[in-house]
Structure prediction request, 507 residues.
Amino acid sequence: MRVGIIGAGVAGLSTAKVLRQAGHEVIVWDKAPDVGGVWSRTRRYPGLTTQSPKAQYSLSDYPMPRAYPQWPTGEQVQEYLAGYASHFGLEAVLRLSTEVTAATPAAGGGWSVATADGVEHVDKLVVANGVFCEPAVPAYPGRAEFTAAGGRVLAGTELHDAETARGKRVLVVGYGKSACDVAVPLSEVAASTDVIARHLLWKVPRRIGGRLNFKMLLLTRMGEALFRYRHLRGVERFLHGPGNGLRGRMINSIGGVSVRQYRLKQLGLVPPGRMEDIVRGAIGLATEGFFEGVAAGRIVVRKERTIARLLPGPAAELDDGTVLPADLIVCATGFTQGVPFLDADVTGRLLDERGNFMLYRQICPVGVDDLYFNGYNSSFFSPLNAEMAALWIAADLAGALDRPAPPAMRREVEAQLAFMDEATNTHHCRGGKIIPFSLHNLDEVLGDLGVNISAAVRASHWLNPVDPAAYRRVTPRVLARLGPARGGSPILAGGVARSPSPPRGPR
Prediction:
């Protein structure tokens, strides 16, 4: 088939690679001039790093370079993804600097995709523009007057150089990972740096107690099992039954360590509730240098505050009446999950009454033909989840999946959304985020495919960090079952799919 993919980030590239291996013709459009999605040079802010360590943020058959640090920078991740595209021969199918302006169902099936270059027909369409596609910037009263007085308001993804803040009075709005990340380099050059935090959030130390990598605790199957999933299995039944007290102490002890390690009581920055509640807001790593900057006075956190309006000073008035001089306001206030290229009829069938995406397995929309999504499964292991979702799409295109009937799919999606509403207090990116249940989603997708890694390796992942490389043979196994690829890889010999030797990544 001819398959169009919108987006050249992790999800778009892994989908293109898998579908080409399955023998399909692929076109990938992206409005950015480079691959990478959120890691594109057009979107990288100062201080950007991965949240998961490099091994856990890798694709199964393309490890990150050994020379990369434990938490690679945004530039390094983009370089890694460019290397992935080159290694798997995707450069020929990329249409970069090409924005999809409209995608509409075509008469007789498939989709008509419009760009500035014209309209093309594809048999199937994959939306891989990501749940972090468009920054959400508040509509502050008084912005026009503020701007006329020389003030600037930027989304975090619009700020690419810390030098923009040199000598300026800076306000960073937000308290999530991106807000704290960007505040550190800005505070090193700005005249002042204030963080406007509506809510304080729990932060997980990258190295708990200064020594133990957090991945040893939270990026394991045991770490995920500490949070109650809708279907309990095996050890989870004990942890959320007779062992519930032990489970609570295990996860909340990390909060105690965080309070002591960063001296949060002294700084007045202890979040409300318990570390266990982290899933109901945002699970974020503590940014290196952030709390140190607060302690040194370079960063001032205005907790439980919002900006009420902007003034022509240029300045900003907070909701308690405090007026702060402000030359530059950086909004790290989240993202919208948008599909502006789809018309109202399609989005009406795609979304529920609250605007949540109705996606079975985070992939397949209920009630819209010839359309798939990938990357709407944001997780601790986003590349691995996206890669296995791409394999699910390949199997479905081959008619090899025994999908439930649409009514049953809809009931399943509604039940999953209702569960995530409760588990995350609706903080699930309109149905596009599966944290902290990354591995449950992975297991469900692989269960549909009737394949998995060995039980022994899965067991080892209960106490050791999940290693995406352990899944590198899943794709060739499934593709071999679907039939010989017309596009070359996987290499078939004697009817058995063999993976090429895993590369070491870009150097």
In short: Confidence is low (pLDDT under 50) at residues 486-507.
